[in-house]
Amino acid sequence: MEFAKIRNNDEKIRIGKVICVGRNYAAHAAELGNEIPEFPIIFLKTASCLVESGSKIIHPPYSTDMHHEIELVLVIGETVKNADDISAENAIYGYAVGLDMTLRDIQNKLKDNGQPWTLAKVFDTSGVISEVVLKENFKLTGTERIYLDVNGKILQDSTLDLMLFSPVEIVKFISSKMTLEKGDLIFTGTPSGVGKVVPGDKMEGGIEGVGLLSAVVSE
Ligand code: MG
């Protein structure tokens, strides 16, 4: 995807880096048998692996365990480096709902071999994002509900206040390691309840006040 769409606005934001946080909810770290991290765990996806809400997710043939991960996405609106609390908050331009689709079998194999898990995260269509809601139109309280259902059954259901690292803490941390720029997206991690989806499955999710998202898994 080259541009992110903004709700009720003609502006299109050119997507830059796609940065993801891993294990940002304690219950999700626990369900995969992982320790709670001391600092945010950071990895990258690509802009070209993203599709918009309503799209098909093409299941790669080399995996038998593709998982859904519903996440709050931060949209960066200005260049920021070594942010403090105020500049981190000011750098957040808006929010979206995202799906960070993950090939869990591939990820586990790579982790076991001590290798980066990039290839579990960047297959084409592995990221879905909703329209962006601008901060000027919506104030995130941090307690919003985040949820995902698969074929009509709620499987992930949490609130954003269970994040281990808040949006501001995440922007501060990432910007201490790399410059953030307008159009960069930050996937902030998924709550517990992740699981396998197969071709034919329909996912619908959302974050209260931020938006809704859907996707169908396809061969
Ligand atoms: Mg994730």
Structure in words:
The chain has one domain (3-218): Fumarylacetoacetate hydrolase, domain 2 (Alpha-Beta Complex), CATH 3.90.850.10. 14% of the residues lie in helices and 37% in strands. The protein has helices at residues 26-31, 85-91, 104-112, 167-175, and strands at residues 3-5, 12-14, 18-22, 41-45, 50-52, 56-58, 66-68, 70-76, 92-100, 102-103, 127-129, 133-134, 145-150, 153-159, 185-187, 195-197, 202-207, 211-218. Strands 3, 4, 5, 8, 9, 11, 12 and 15 form an eight-stranded mixed β-sheet that branches. A five-stranded mixed β-sheet has the order 6-18-17-13-14, with no helix packed on it. A three-stranded antiparallel β-sheet has the order 10-7-16. The radius of gyration is 16 Å and the shape is globular. Bound molecules: magnesium ion (MG).
